[in-house]
Amino acid sequence: MQIKDKRVIVTGAASDVGLAFSRELLRNGALMIVMIDIKQWIGEQAVESLNNEFGRKRTVFLCCDVTNNSEFDTKLKEAINILGGLDILINNAGVINEIDFSKAIDVNVTAVIRGTLLGIQQMRKDSGGKGGIIVNISSIAGLRAVSQLPVYSATKHAVVSFSRSFAQPYHYERTNVKVIVLCPDLIDIPEDISQNISNINSLQNDRHHRVESIAHGLIYVIRCAQNGSVWISEDGKPVFEVQLPDTLPQKTEVDAQN
């Protein structure tokens, strides 16, 4: 999909990767972006900065706690009304919280599911929509085991599986809404956890470059990725697609007598 003149919603958009997403989308011609985040003051400052850079009314900020289901539903619908429709949805809100695991599940899994379902409802062709794209932001931790972040890893695995399931022909042929997964490397790791990760320096070096690289990767994915595909953005390098199996591994016969 070309980005020019498209209407976009980005969650978790007030800072860091979400803000970089919003800026890069505007650079590439997005008509208007509604930025959703729980951090009101930071979000308002981000919108002011982007509007000064790209023109007034190109971005709007809505303060929202994505773990509050009714509030999230209301704000998404408000965002779509502001935009006059929806073409692209970026479910980016996420947290690392290994102590309060229910919080991590609410933000990283439940909000992504609710956002995806509402986005599909608004864009689906069999209900009068024109189709569109949803990019769900997972993590490289959603593709591999991370011993220091088991809850975070589990939630991001869930995003990958959910997104690939909704991208199957059973859904896509009726909705014309692509669902794609982008898996960035780790950007913000709590200090108490980062001390126990041996390669933390390589993970967090050159942070600004890596955030910008992830944003560039999002643009490429929107333009070029196939429905249901999974992409990795790692170490500040260009994104690349990862092939995941759609079938179970072949069963290995075991000799019970050995």
TrEMBL record:
InterPro entries associated with the record: NAD(P)-bd_dom_sf, Sc_DH/Rdtase_CS, SDR_fam
Gene3D superfamilies: NAD(P)-binding Rossmann-like Domain (3.40.50.720)
Pfam family, one: adh_short
EC number(s) reported in the record: 1.1.1.141, 1.1.1.232
PANTHER family listed in its UniProt record: 15-HYDROXYPROSTAGLANDIN DEHYDROGENASE [NAD(+)] (PTHR44229)
UniProt similarity note: Belongs to the short-chain dehydrogenases/reductases (SDR) family.
Record's protein name: 15-hydroxyprostaglandin dehydrogenase [NAD(+)]
Source species: Atta colombica
Lineage, broadest ranks: Eukaryota, Metazoa, Ecdysozoa, Arthropoda, Hexapoda
